[in-house]
Design brief:
456 residues; alpha/beta; Aminopeptidase; Glucose Oxidase, domain 1; 2 domains; 8-stranded mixed β-sheet; 16 strands; endoplasmic reticulum; CPQ; metal-binding
């Protein structure tokens, strides 16, 4: 053991000695990430052992144990659990949906219930369609035209946004708010065209939010091609009907956990640089890009520094948040505890945009912090981080930013393919490129090192 410690210390001395010490350490981080591909190997473990990790599920429970054991094995100074009550929604048996037309009979459609959706009656329900593009359209519709029908939100993901995250923000409103707005007009159910950039027939799920002043009605997403077929059938014959059967159930809240690992700061242990993603994932696919990639990014970004022999000035904290997908309770609980205990966060960093090639970081902080990050761009290798944006953060670290004013940073990978996989059965380990994933890990590790060693 002493030989190992001496070897690690000797490596670090070599890396940081003399001029160019930052460049040498950063070069080492990128090379080690690619050569050892530890993040990729961890992602394989997480996604294949615990593919369905929705909060409250056995998969989520297993993932908590996995994250705790993984950080202990990697030699983190502290690893502990932070309890949080989470919602417990279960999809149940496979949904079914088909259109009924006089000429073509029953045509099955690719479908997934939206997260939190209530069930249909056990026998399913059948109703005519009321077709709109987006939420604003249903708000303007006459209740007598909508009552007793299934509302079909047909708007596609907008292609005009070069940054697809911006397109998602515009497209997701029909999924989140559409069901309640339709219910206010008397609709019996909702189906939406999936929020995806892909043109295949995989349905993409995601959470909805039921309004307190509206009935709760069943809601589901259709694959892009199925949505096309439904729309064309309705155009040809507005009297077509749709059958929908959803088998979901809601159980009482369940205890779960954020998983936290730390390397204790050598000079300022009370000051924290936090980095994390969300451990939970939807109950379809394997949650590889969303957000298994963010979890292994975060764990290995800190572990790489430890393996290089780096002793952090401040405490480096990895947070594996629970329940981002359908409640955000992990992020809210983390912020509440941090505020109650007056924890000193220098910054919080989130990675929740997939395991694609890293392109930049976004920061919500002071002008001087923004400029400092821009000054660091030259430290990052070519073909990785090229941009620092004013404005960043993430769902899980947002509550901390709101409660305590903590500066927050988001990793920005290339976004063009992310929503091809997002919240669907396509989001599996094989969809993640090893080299791209490891570039993200090393980029995060570099940023953490620069913040810790040069101040923020």
């Amino acid at each position: 053991m002493n030989r190992i410690l001496l070897s690690v210390l000797f490596l670090f001395v070599l890396l940081v000695a003399g001029d160019g010490r930052h460049e040498r350490l950063i070069d080492h981080l990128f090379k080690r990430a690619q050569e050892k591909h530890q993040a990729y190997d961890l992602l394989r473990e997480l996604t294949t052992q615990f593919p369905h990790r929705l909060a409250g599920s056995p998969g989520a429970d297993g993932a908590v144990r996995w994250a705790e054991e993984t950080m202990r094995k990697l030699g983190f100074d502290k690893v502990y659990l932070q309890a949080v009550k989470v919602p417990h929604w279960v999809r149940g048996e496979q949904e079914s949906c088909y259109l009924i037309s006089g000429g073509a009979g029953r045509q099955p459609l690719s479908v997934l219930a939206l997260g939190r959706s209530v069930a249909t009656p056990p026998e399913g329900l059948t109703a005519p369609l009321y077709v709109v593009n987006d939420v604003d359209d249903i708000k303007q519709a006459a209740a007598e035209d909508v009552r007793g029908k299934i509302v079909f939100f047909n708007a596609a993901f907008p292609d005009t946004f070069l940054q697809t995250m911006h397109g998602y923000g515009a497209a997701v409103k029909k999924r989140v708010y559409g069901p309640s707005e339709a219910a206010k007009k008397g609709a019996v159910a909702v189906v939406i065209r999936s929020v995806t950039t892909a043109r295949d027939d995989f349905a993409h799920t995601g959470t909805l939010v039921y309004a307190a002043d509206a009935p709760q009605i069943p809601a589901a997403a259709l694959g892009f091609q199925s949505a096309d077929r439904l729309y064309k059938a309705w155009q040809a014959d507005p009297s077509v009907r749709l059958f929908l059967k959803i088998n979901s159930r809601v159980f009482p809240d369940k205890m779960s956990y954020n998983v936290i690992g730390e390397l204790t700061g050598s000079k300022h242990p009370q000051k924290i640089i936090a980095v994390g993603g969300h451990l939970d994932a939807w109950d379809v696919g394997q949650g590889a890009h969303d957000d298994g990639a963010g979890i292994v990014h975060s764990i290995m970004a800190v572990a790489l520094l430890k393996q290089a022999g780096y002793r952090p000035v401040n405490t480096l904290r990895v947070v594996c948040f629970m329940n981002e997908e359908n409640g955000l309770r992990g992020g809210k609980e983390y912020a509440a505890i941090a505020e109650k205990e007056h924890q000193q966060h220098i910054v919080a960093i989130e990675t929740d945009a997939g395991g694609f090639t890293p392109r930049g970081f976004g920061i919500s902080g002071s002008g001087s912090q923004l400029q400092r990050m821009k000054d660091w761009l030259s430290y990052f290798p070519a073909f990785t981080i090229r941009e620092i944006r004013d404005g960043g953060g993430g769902a899980d670290i947002g509550p901390l930013h709101k409660a305590m004013g903590t500066p927050v940073i988001s990793l920005i990978p290339d976004s063009q393919r992310y929503f091809d996989f997002h919240h669907s059965r396509r989001d599996v380990f094989e969809a993640v490129n090893r080299r791209e994933l490891e570039l993200g890990t090393a980029s995060l590790s570099t940023l953490i090192y620069l913040i810790d060693s040069q101040g923020f």
